[in-house]
């Protein structure tokens, strides 16, 4: 099966650019997310860090 895919992939011109495009998209997304997190305020970070703990309504008993 791999030989079948490789045989057809070798016939496509400039196929070696696709892994590079994927890498560039990943790196750009990672850098954008890193900048976004660095620019967040402390209040927003604190609120987001407590989200999993604050999902319970205050008047409902805890179900363990």
Q: What is the tally of beta strands?
A: 0
Q: Structural class, judged by helices and strands? A: mainly alpha
Mean pLDDT over all positions: 83
Helix content: 55-70%
Sum up the overall morphology in one term: elongated
Beta-strand portion reads under 5%
Taking all Cα atoms into account, the compactness measure Rg is 23 Å
Cα-to-Cα separation, first versus last residue = 49 Å
Uncertain ranges: none
Order of helices and strands: HHH
Please tally the helical runs, counting DSSP H or I stretches of 4 or more residues.
3
For the sheet with most strands, the description reads:
none
Describe this structure in words.
The protein is mainly α. The protein has a domain at 16-49. Helix content is 64%, strand content 0%. The protein has 3 helices and no strands. It has helices at residues 2-11, 17-39, 42-49.
């Amino acid at each position: 099966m791999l030989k079948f895919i490789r045989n057809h992939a070798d016939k496509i011109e400039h196929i070696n650019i696709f892994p590079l495009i994927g890498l560039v998209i990943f790196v750009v997304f990672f850098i954008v997310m890193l900048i976004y997190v660095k620019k967040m305020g402390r209040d927003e970070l604190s609120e987001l860090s407590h989200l999993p703990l604050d999902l319970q309504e205050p008047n409902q008993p805890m179900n363990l």
